[in-house]
Amino acid sequence: MPALRPHSDRGDVVAAGAVVLALGAAVADLRLGETWAAGVRLALLSGPAALIVLAMGVRAPVQERPLPHVTILLLAGLGLTGLALSDLADVLGDEGRLASPAATTFVSGCLAALCLLLAPAKRSATVTLAGCVAGAATLLAAADLGFELDDRLEAFRYLLCAALLLVVLAAAATRDRQRRHAVTFAEAGGLALVAIGVTLAAERLPELAPVGPLAQGTGAGWEALLVLGGWALLAYAAVDNERGPAWLGIAVLALFTGLTGTEEGASLLWWPLGLLAAGAAIVAFGLRPAAQPPPEPEVRREEPPAQPTPMPPRRHEPAPWEEAPAEPVAAAPEGDAPQPPSPLWSGGEGGHER
């Protein structure tokens, strides 16, 4: 399909049109969900739109760093693919759009597998992040499907911790070889921490969790995970000069502050006093006077490069058919007057020719 391959000079226009096309198909599919059958929506709306947009993203030329319009095409195609898969799940017997854990597992699992194929092929770190999110959703939905969970939020937190461990190992393994993907794995870990903090905050709301073991307070272990994870994200962002992990670290620490600052009981134990003492110790360690300043680095003077020796002029050797150049006549030494020609040969005055 050469017609679906966007040119680099018009890629931005194609991406803008693809976003509008995806929005139109999504709005039409959602509006007609009650009146049209799922198979009709899949055949006329979500399916063709997903194939067209995703094909344009796949057929875009592969570069070391994908162009922005290629990333937009891939994300729009993945979104439409998820919508088409939800219609397919409805065709296969789902009661509603992602109403059951089985449908959620099917859709998120297919998206995660597709991202796993596209991310290395298109060298897109954004698709890697989308694949991490889809994989975590698949893990949570599969656990909800296979096990009868008494407390879903607590079970989801443990599963998010397992996903967090996986992305941390992936970030450490790819940091030197594929730095952009390593940053993406770090951002995925930040999203997992944000999700853990959101589940902890949800238990504080009486309409969501009126009764529960953590309804009146948050476990110290989860709070420690948030504060250490947020601090690690900020440190990673400072070392590698990346913005994404920094913003996620701020969000995680904001969730930690809200959770620990709203607990019942006005007391400085344990987090306020511990954080104040740790922060003061770290600042004092950084401001301590140095016993002996490190030596100044030696300035090495670079010698100018040697000038190349000019080649002597090449003497022209005459060919056999060329006349030999005349030998230069030696100049008369200074101080000697030039001698007049002999009258015997010149035929001058007083002379004769022989």
Molecular structure report:
Helix content is 61%, strand content 0%. The chain is mainly alpha-helical and 354 residues long. The protein has two domains: 1-148; 150-262, no CATH class. The model is unreliable at 207-216 and 345-354 (pLDDT under 50).
- Total number of domains: 2
The average pLDDT is 79
Q: Spans of 5+ residues with little confidence (pLDDT < 50)?
A: 207-216, 345-354
| Biggest sheet architecture | none
Which structural class matches the secondary elements?
mainly alpha
Report the count of strand segments: 0
Determine the strand fraction and express it as a percent band: under 5%
Number of helices: 11
Helix content: 55-70%
* Shape, principal axes of CA atoms: flat
Distance between the termini: 105 Å
How do the SSEs run, as a string of H and E?
HHHHHHHHHHH
Rounded Rg = 40 Å
List strands and helices in order, with pairings:
Elements: H1 11-31, H2 38-58, H3 68-91, H4 101-122, H5 125-146, H6 152-174, H7 179-202, H8 220-240, H9 244-261, H10 271-286, H11 343-346
Helix pairs in contact: 1-2, 1-3, 2-3, 3-4, 4-5, 5-6, 5-7, 6-7, 7-8, 7-9, 8-9
Question: Notable features of this structure?
Answer:
354 residues, mainly alpha, 2 domains, flat
Short description:
Helix content is 61%, strand content 0%. By secondary structure, the protein is mainly α.
